Amino acid sequence: MPFDPDNPNESSSFSTLYPDRLMDESVRKPTDLLSLTEALPGTMPYMTLQLTAGLEMHYRPDSPDASNDVATALASRLGHEGAHINGVVHFTGESGEADDAPGMDDETYCALYEELAAVCNGLGVRLWRKFRPGDTVLVRPDDYAPGDTLWTSGGAHRFMGLVDFPADSKTAQMFPGVQYFQCEDDFRMTASGSSYPTRAEHAPPGYWQRTGNQLLPAAH
Prior knowledge:
This protein is of the alpha+beta class. About 20% of the residues lie in helices and about 30% in strands.
């Protein structure tokens, strides 16, 4: 859908996929454009594939880099059978055959990641990302192991384990199977939901092991 120039909260997104399945995203103003000639320099012109209405994928057909298996499978899934893509690819909104492309709106962005998830499930692989210490990540209760630091708005606590609520408690009756974080200092916090947000620098080792994501140095 077209961007609303009167909406000050609206944004656009650009995504980049590397052959090793590293994903990189940037959120910008709806008026910002990506220069495709600068993003994909080379002796041959870059190639653009329209994947869906409002979504394009751009790449270098002469890239000497490794095969981008996820991008190739995505192209095939969305109507471009026979395409073989090497190197980095950029996902944008529709460029209208211009060398400067707008970002994706929220609906297109979400649809892209649904398609990427389907492709990765079929290939038996996963995408991964790099996060700065202050970025937000989604951790799961079972990412924590005894001895890990559990960070809350009140500070840091030494995690000891996940404990079931007593069966006769109101919490257990309202939310069967719910557990709470038990910490060494007797701090307790309900482990509600399948995941919850925290700063990347506060995520436990289990999160990084589960996702394959990488924490960047503070000065990066």
